[in-house]
């Protein structure tokens, strides 16, 4: 029996009927709908073609759909691992955690993305100070869901953020502070995912900060605020979330800072040297000892090294698997094949030979943060050739149960099932195949994973991995090479990573357990202050088709006005509240649209801000322009400009019912809702760029007030550049103009007093 196919359930008659029902709406002048009418004949013809097309589309197999997607350069997305920031506490002695340190969140494994050095250090107090007030926000910082202004609501020049530590920082000791900001216009739980896609190279900071510490100045013989050395500033002067790494260059001294003045402390201070924040930075949390962790469980990893090929050379590996797992070492020959070298206890005890043995020594350090591999001098132990020729394979001890996949029989289209490895990601595996040599040993060749064998040539060492079926497949000799036959197991895994999927999106404070007993004995606390985010299952074919349709509609090139507006609003690192594209316009045109500028377009941007009339800074405009410049047409010159704000003041005499003579403020609020530059709540829109303010607009707004009988008298005043008033009293705005309300004066008169 044939399988039921996903056909469209509309019949030919239903398509004709639906089309005929649209005639009165779309073509009202079409009155003859009888069968003899040529238009009805065309409807029936296209209904038949539609039915046939849908019928055959319903019979396109999934394999062909994948080929069509491949022509568009789109493939199903792989499973994605969730990421989270983890923080370490209760550090009592210096310790370095290697990259890949394993942590548990209930049944989910997480690994750190980078090594981290922990020292006994804690943030003691946090103080913000402006010209008007000083606040101790230490308690607020301890509650990550409550944000505070780093430099007050205005973030004016000379505003300060003080941070004190519980001890003196050593000279040139690097300290890293993780700054989590509350981003304007973005959901609080999306920050982790947003952080990974932001392009910091596009962003021009709107303001400039300086960082100083209270230190002893040997030149003057007094203590004072001296600059610290900033080695890394991912926040771009507290514009976006990130890390700030600094070190002091002079001995620190204690000082009291109000209101944390009960005793002197060791302080550093961030000062606004140049103001210009569109949105003053709001800090969700400042943290020490943080690193990013990813939901995965690496069973085996490969680390390639470039060596100089000199005698007695050594390499250092600082990963968790290298420190706590087992190590194998391979060296590449001139033909690109890999050969295993053996571990030796002592190279000095090796015999001096003309053909030295391929051996190395492995040293595991008591610090548990790295291991060292050393090679011989060319006589007592061989020297690896120069270049990227050394590979370290570090793995869990239990990985030996999985690393041997099988042996090749030399036939086309071989498949091997990984029974006990649930690798969700297509790129989770690294694979080598052994080739027998004349001396009875094996050399090992790398094979690369591909999605399909369509582009593979006969000699390409490719394989396909299906995570759902857990199958490894090889080519047929025409599309993809065939693994050479062997009497021994010659197909092995050298890299394997588990993890990925929705279950990694764990709640805060769940990443709290150590996997390794030696690290657990350090009694260091670990937790994730925020949500783990970004984890997703592998994309289904239907999901890929839907994404392909959405991407075809996605704006990635600036051609039309709408394209420019969409791209400008999506600028990373710039919270754009409103945007308007004006074609053939450039600042300085006196009589637009009669006078135009060929090949030019101006994009007006309004940032999010706390003021009624937010103005973008020079850095904000530059950030948006850089983003647009990568997507505009080559022949188009783009200007990113601020809006021109026009203050509009309404004076009116309104006749109302007697009981409403004291409701003048309500009419004022009605006018303010009308004459506002920014969008409001519940989808209400701000004033249209460049739209004239007509008296009719004001009459209409006032007439909507409760109890209004009629507007007896009305006049409008306007203040701002390039504004003109018509003979009838209307306000004409420049094309990049927006209005905001002045002090409206509304006089109410009871109709009974007329």
Your description of this structure?
The chain is built from 13 helices and 43 strands. It starts with 11 loop residues before the first helix and ends with a strand. It has six domains: 12-59; 78-116 and 509-536, no CATH class; 122-288, Jelly Rolls (Sandwich); 300-498, no CATH class; 561-641, 2-Layer Sandwich (GMP Synthetase, Chain A, domain 3); 644-753, no CATH class. It is α+β, with helices and mostly antiparallel strands and 754 residues long. Helix 11 (618-629) links the parallel strand 36 and strand 37. Residues 186-196 have low confidence and may be disordered. The strands form eight sheets. Strands 19, 20, 21, 22, 23, 24, 25, 26, 27, 28, 29, 30, 31 and 32 form a 14-stranded mixed beta sheet that branches. Strands 6, 7, 9, 11, 12, 15 and 16 form a seven-stranded antiparallel beta sheet that branches. Strands 33-3-4-18-1-34 form a six-stranded antiparallel beta sheet. Helix 4 (62-71) packs parallel to helix 9 (541-553) and helix 10 (561-569) packs across helix 11 (618-629).
Identify the overall geometry.
Answer: flat
Which structural category fits the helices and strands?
alpha+beta
Mean pLDDT: 91
Total number of beta strands: 43
Q: What is Rg?
A: 35 Å
Count of individual domains = 6
Strand content: 25-35%
Distance between the termini: 89 Å
The parts where pLDDT drops under 50 for at least 5 residues are 186-196
